[in-house]
Design brief:
The complex is a heterodimer of chains A (794) and B (168).
Chain A lengths: L8 H11 L4 H7 L1 H12 L4 H12 L14 E3 L5 E5 L8 H13 L6 E5 L16 H28 L6 E4 L2 E4 L2 E7 H5 L40 H5 L15 E6 L7 E6 L9 E7 L2 E6 L2 H10 L1 E5 L12 H7 L4 E2 L3 E3 L2 H6 L3 E9 L2 E2 L7 E5 L5 E5 L4 H12 L6 E5 L14 H12 L3 E4 L2 H7 L2 E2 L2 E9 L5 E10 L14 H5 L23 E8 L20 H18 L4 H10 L9 H16 L15 E12 L2 E12 L5 E11 L6 H20 L29 E6 L24 H13 L10 H10 L3
Parallel strand pairs in A: 2-3, 7-19, 17-18, 22-23, 26-27
Antiparallel strand pairs in A: 1-2, 4-5, 5-6, 7-10, 8-11, 9-10, 12-23, 13-23, 14-21, 15-20, 16-17, 16-19, 21-22, 24-25, 25-26
Helix pairs in contact in A: 5-6, 12-13, 16-20, 17-18, 19-20
Chain B lengths: L1 E7 L2 E7 L5 H8 L18 E4 L2 E4 L12 E2 L12 H8 L9 H14 L5 H8 L9 H17 L3 H10 L1
Antiparallel strand pairs in B: 1-2, 3-4, 3-5
Chain lengths: 794, 168
């Protein structure tokens, strides 16, 4: 066994400091003798895990933790504390605290006696890391079942120890007691502290993992539904947390990339002499159009990357239209793919028979992740293995991607996940991990790489631009009888998760997969009962497919805000055409049917819309309202959507300055139903921030480009929400709209993204209510709003 | 390269360094501090904020040769094993999402409160405006600043009490 199977000391310290526990590796090392004696007690001579480890050790030092071993999920320490090992990462919503609450409940241990370790590929089972808001909805289930199984096994051990049948025992806070004689007791720590369970679980995949025990009814949970403070926050405010950016290793060096000056440029030559004599210079690394400079110190690498002289040849044709001409280009382009339209009834006939037909086009530009910290990673190539210290939200995917990219066995590669800036999909398509590993292999020393701000803003993965055409027909009574949704998304060659042939370094090195990802455009997600409708989604491609800074990837609720901006703005336009209150108009569409899905999404939608209306104090009237007399025009707008089984109804109240075009979102309300609420306060905060993320997209965010390059390169040219934009009041109403709200199997649904979805439309609808002017092009920057007000003579 | 002497959180450090090096890289890479972080290198986002002479200063664009006074970082504002009231307010309000920008938020807020212990909402918005958060925790940041201002008013640090008495 090489010394590299151990987590480096400084990372042990990180994990230990954060979680107040000794590391798994130390535990298992020190427990070696105890494992033998425990095994001799009859749990089998050689476990599956041991077999797997023996087989894998030939291939490399980092075999996959076996998800069918209880020991992979839970370690009980001699002092009675427990550490949970989960294959998830946290993008900042505090999911680790939620996992601890749920697992503590199932294990019957005090919450504050537990800790949670996440997302390091050699220490925690592969649950995929983060993505799709699946933490509580999907991935907490195997954790709960493993914890329930641990409790069952501990009760059996307690039964043997105390000589009393299990049904005569009770357990609370990690102490097993004889019901008839409470003086007879044994703790979890005394039973298994520092030892392995050696219990094999069943299940074909990690999501199906289970033991014999059943999980508890949620009513028996003590910690779930409470709001313990997030355990990760204190170290984030006192400066003690070691983030992925903080990793330091002996002999480490620093790298910076040199990106092509215009998209599609081909590197003709490099003049290494332009940097060779700079202080700290080590090497220029180049393959294809990928260029990086490596120096001893960070500021030296930054300086050398700026000074490196390179000769680039521009492409013969423009890689893309300018952002000014983007939507015309998209509408004129032949789609690269179309999904089969979703058709209900006979929309054309219904449209032809409608008393009134209206139509509108909506444009949503490319919007960036623009994470607050540019991409970064550290890679250590020592002893023929590769360790990447990374904030990648899909650390397991990165491990597989790096191994394939470098041509190394997976068992020689591991990713140690550490905290970083918000994920939101950017770090699922992380670029720095592959770059650091590649450079470390080239240099033979640990390499830390970090992108500069202009690189990150220009070259990060983007949410695709959408051009949506909506058409709707009303009957003479103002009922919506036909709706046609037709979306075009500039999403061809959508980037995947750390794939060795789509990460940017691979693209720049000339690697191409035969068939780029088709991409997708979303359809609206609401439960309106509309007798005739058609929903079409098509993808278009820009001229340049590879090595483009306009590469698309997943951005929080991918495509949801774009699609919903069009669909929920248009519902408002239809309500206005029918001279109906926009909330009442929607409620009529929701209640026009009583059929529902297995998650009661229609019933829960109605409950959520009602809750938002009540929390805001919505007075029924059509939009727009009679215009205010002064310079400040006020209005309110509503929008609603679901994502999976989570539902959000949102109300934005705005002030529009008639003289400047400035929009202030003064008040926000969100009613939100995600089923079982694990930590209501953490949930509330996540919903607040998700709403504001979309307010930022509504008011500020647009990736701009000319016909050669992205010109949004910093916080001035890709502005974001600031402190001045913050609403005076935000109300989040947490709803349990299940028809049987106290059912013992009430499931949790994802909560990280849904609240992003309706907000662009809610803001547009509020601006319309205030001004009578309909904005159909995002973002609503002052100049655009002012121009629209002036055109309409407001 | 030349010898540069820095007072950081009350400790003196002498380094043989290019004097044009931005302070940020020295704090992080030579002194091992983790509070100030790189966000833009342009002085636009505030992640790298430290306090020098009572002023919230962007260390990513501050050459080390220009630093003549004590540098206070996030690690240096807790006193006597007790968190600064702003740090405590950040925990009480559960402000962070990812937390990566919060060094800049807390240090900018500290410089603000040190100058103006009882800011209005408008003054908080103005004072914090160029300090960015991409998780959008602004609403709770502003609540936490008000909470901290109240806590400081209710239990002022002894030094400030003494100063007030002198003024009175």
């Amino acid at each position: 066994m090489t010394p590299f199977t151990k987590v480096p000391k400084q990372v042990e310290e990180v994990l230990g400091n954060l979680n107040g526990t000794t590391s798994r590796r130390n535990l298992l090392k020190s427990a070696g003798m105890l494992v033998v004696s425990f095994t001799a007690a009859g749990t089998g001579p050689l476990t599956q895990e041991a077999k797997a480890q023996a087989a894998a050790s030939a291939a490399g030092p980092y075999p996959d933790p076996d998800f069918r071993q209880l020991d992979s999920w839970i370690v009980i320490h001699q002092d009675g504390t427990a550490t949970f090992y989960v294959g998830k990462t946290d993008c900042g919503q505090g999911t680790g605290t939620g996992f601890r609450q749920l697992m503590s409940d199932e294990l019957d241990i005090a919450y504050d006696k537990t800790s949670c370790i996440m997302g390091s590929t050699d220490n925690t089972v592969d649950q995929g890391g983060s993505g799709g808001s699946t933490a509580m909805e999907r991935d907490a289930w195997p954790m709960r079942r493993a914890a329930a199984e641990a409790r069952r096994v501990l009760l059996e051990m307690g039964s043997s120890r105390l000589g009393v049948p299990v049904d005569q025992l009770t357990v609370s806070a990690g102490v097993i007691t004889v019901k008839a004689d409470p003086s007879k007791r044994v703790t979890y720590g005394e039973l298994v502290g520092g030892k392995r369970f050696n219990v094999t679980l069943t299940g074909n995949n990690v999501n199906a993992v289970t033991g014999v025990a059943q999980v508890k009814p949620v009513q028996e949970h003590k910690f779930t539904g409470q709001s313990p403070q997030r355990y990760d926050i204190p170290a984030k405010v006192d400066g003690s947390l070691k983030w992925a950016v903080d990793v330091k290793l002996p002999g480490m060096v620093h790298a910076r990339n040199v990106k092509p000056p215009v998209a599609g440029a081909k590197l003709i030559s490099l003049d290494e002499s332009s940097v060779r004599n700079l202080p700290g210079f080590i090497k220029v690394v180049n393959k294809g159009n990928y260029v990086a400079v490596v120096c001893e110190r960070e500021e030296q690498a930054i300086n050398a990357a700026r000074q490196l002289k390179a000769n680039w040849e521009k492409p013969a044709t423009s890689p893309f239209p300018s952002s000014e001409n983007l939507f015309k280009y998209m509408r004129d382009a032949a789609p690269t793919s179309s999904s089969n339209p979703i058709v209900v009834g006979n929309p054309e006939a219904a449209m032809a028979g409608a008393a009134k037909v209206i139509e509108a086009d909506y444009d949503i530009p490319f919007q960036g992740h623009t994470a607050i910290s540019p991409a970064h990673a550290m890679a250590d190539p020592s002893n023929g293995q590769m360790t990447i210290y990374s904030n990648d939200m899909k650390s397991y995917g990165m491990r597989t991607g790096v191994a394939a990219f470098l041509g190394m066995p997976r068992e020689k590669v591991r990713v140690v996940w550490m905290e970083g800036p918000q994920g939101f999909g950017r770090t699922a398509a992380d670029d720095a991990g592959c770059e650091a590993a590649y450079l470390a292999k080239e240099i033979g020393r640990p390499v830390r790489v970090q992108w500069m701000r202009n690189e990150e803003t220009a070259w990060d993965t983007k949410a695709p631009a959408f051009a949506v055409k909506m058409r709707g027909g009303l009957d003479a009574a103002g009922n919506l009888v036909a709706l046609d949704y037709n979306a075009l998304a500039a999403d061809y060659n959508h980037v995947g998760y750390n794939e060795p042939d789509t990460v940017l370094i691979a693209q720049l090195q000339g690697i191409r997969r035969a068939r780029p990802a088709a991409g997708s455009a979303a359809t609206p997600s609401e439960m309106y009962a509309i007798p005739h409708r058609r929903m079409t989604s098509q993808v278009v491609s820009l001229p340049m497919v590879w090595e483009t800074p306009l590469r698309t990837g997943n951005l929080r609720d991918p495509n949801g805000p774009q699609s919903t901006f069009a669909s929920e703005s248009f519902i408002d336009e239809l309500a206005a055409a029918a001279k109906a209150d926009p909330l009442e108009f929607r409620m009529k569409l929701l209640t026009a049917s009583t059929t529902d899905d297995t998650g009661f999404k229609r019933a829960r939608s109605i409950a959520v819309v009602k809750a938002a209306s009540e929390a805001y104090g919505w007075d029924k009237r059509p939009s727009p309202k009679p215009r205010d007399a002064g310079d400040i025009l006020t209005g309110r707008g509503f929008a609603y959507a679901f994502r999976g089984q989570t539902i959000a109804a949102e109300i934005a109240e705005v002030e529009v300055n008639r003289k400047t075009g400035h929009v202030w979102v003064k008040r926000l309300v969100c009613a939100h139903d995600c089923g079982l609420m694990v930590n209501p306060e953490a949930l509330r905060h996540t919903v607040e921030c998700a709403m504001l993320h979309s307010v930022s997209r509504a008011l500020h965010e647009e990736v701009q480009f000319d016909t050669e390059k992205v010109t949004s390169v910093d916080w001035n040219s890709h502005p974001t929400l600031t402190h001045s934009d913050v609403p005076a009041r935000i109300d989040v109403v947490l709803v349990n709209g299940d028809p049987n709200p106290k059912r013992p199997d009430l499931p949790p649904y994802g909560a990280g993204e849904t609240a992003c979805k309706p907000m662009l439309a809610a803001v547009a609808n509020a601006i319309y209510d205030a001004t009578g002017v309909r904005l159909r092009r995002v973002p609503f920057r002052d100049a655009r709003v002012l121009a629209a007000l002036q055109t309409a003579r407001v | 390269m030349s010898n540069v002497t820095l007072n950081v959180n009350g400790s003196m450090h002498t380094l043989d360094i290019d004097p044009s090096t931005p302070l940020l890289y020295i704090l992080r890479n030579d002194l091992g501090l983790q509070g100030p972080r790189f966000g833009c290198g342009l002085g636009q986002c505030g992640l790298c904020t430290v306090i020098i002479n009572g002023v919230a200063t962007r260390s990513c664009i501050t050459p080390v040769s220009t630093v003549k006074s004590e540098v206070t970082t996030l690690e240096g504002i807790a006193k006597g094993g007790k968190l600064h009231p702003l740090q405590q307010a950040w925990i009480d309000e559960q402000v962070p999402q990812c937390g990566f920008c919060q060094n800049g938020q807390i240090m900018t807020a500290k410089a603000l409160l040190d100058k103006n212990p009882n800011p209005t909402d408008a003054q908080i918005r103005e004072g914090m405006n160029r300090t960015l958060c991409r998780c959008m925790t602004y609403y709770r940041i502003q609540a936490a600043i008000k909470r901290a201002a109240n806590a400081i008013a209710a239990a002022p640090p002894s030094q400030e009490v003494a100063e007030k008495e002198v003024v009175a």
